[in-house]
Amino acid sequence: MAKKFCFETVATDKKARVGKLVTPHGEVETPVFLPVGTQASIKSLDRRDLEDMGETEPQMILANTYHLYLRPGADTVAKMGGLHKFMNWDRPILTDSGGFQVFSLGFGIEHQVGKMVDLFSKSMVLGEAVAVDPKELVVRTKLCKIEEDGPTFQSHIDGSVHFFPPEISVETQEKLGADFIVALDECTSPLHDYDYTKTSMERSHRWEVRSLKAAKQRNMFGVIQGGPFEDLRVKSAKFVSENDFFGIGIGGALVSKEKMREILDWIYPHLSPQKPRHLLGIGTIDDIFTGVERGVDIFDCVHPTRIARMGWLLTKTKNFTLDLNKVAYRLDSGPIEEGCGCYTCQHYTRAYLHHLFRARELLAYRLATIHNVYFMMSLMKDIRRAIAEKRFAKLKENWLKLMQS
RNA sequence: GCCGAGGUAGCAGAGCGGCCAAAUGCACGGGACUGUAAAUCCCGCGCCCGAAAGGGCUACCCAGGUUCGAAUCCUGGCCUCGGCA
Fold first, then answer.
1. ipTM of this model?
2. A6-301, CATH topology level
3. Residue A187 pLDDT greater than 80, yes or no
């Protein structure tokens, strides 16, 4: 019997590589982008919407352990035959560990930041007191506290308290039955200083070792932390490469596009080439090029699906977006993007979507999400082909030119 | 014709002597969004100056009046809506 899980590199173009990821639910060609289906659903889309994309159909998706643990509960999903059956999706799934929620429901809430911060709009100095414009802050309560044994969450749904150590994260993920699971870590904030980031990284490593010990199968991704600090990132990269993880997750605070590039360069020499690399939670189109160029194989991000629901459609124009809420599209009879093969572009006009968004019709979210997912999938396809044909640099250059046009 | 209710920002609708350039919602304009507390959130929304703090001007149907002070009280007018003829 063939190995249940394996990864091999098929083609390379400098550091960029095309790979094949084998799972019990079929093969995945990398570099791949995983649409995010946090609560076992890519918001507003149904399997049919994805299948209609044909060759551009998503190959693998991401779901979230913490959210599904809270609702409907891992046992419920298990009784319903596991995540694949439950959500009627028979291609590979990766479940995130809940590590991002340690951050987003904790420090992230308190300081209103994400993995990246805009250093120009928020006045702050890394590692020093946070001085964000008070007007930008909405006082919200922290929903996670961290101790050595593990994080304790207060449910954002009903306020109930949950101790969520690595062992529970792994057990939950195994009950859900995803193809790939992720070790529990703490995603650090761009605002954390060296000392905190170091302490946190070391604790994450201990949590990850515990995750590994608790796991029954060899399909786990470890996660590199270390924030924007070179020595920490290198140490963490070695830790994940050397331990018995199937794949390498690159997580934590990436701070900015420039810093992310540096971080990827620092860790590259320490990444085991046999393991697939997942740049967690990234990203935007330009960030994907940055990642692929530095050897990243897997991406996931809420960006395309989230902005779709805000009326932002991905296009090959300035900043890659079209804000369909603007009056300018009221009488625009063209498709979202000329030449796009997605269902939305084949059947509807910009004017219609503009109307749906203004009227907050539910169909708006679905049609926009279909387009954005299709757009990302076809971008990844182009990237794979370009690497195989050793013209990745040229493809990247052309795309980035579009962004600035 | 008589009786009753009412006329407030683009709309709906609070306010009923000073804290009112006027609640709230919608609409409108702008901004944000990177391992989803997100079909969300933030800001603006009479005019002018200011980066802001703030300042100035004109305002709650129209015309008068009372008062230190009126969207708010009084008188007259115009107009709407309900009931009765």
1. 0.89
2. TIM Barrel (3.20.20)
3. yes
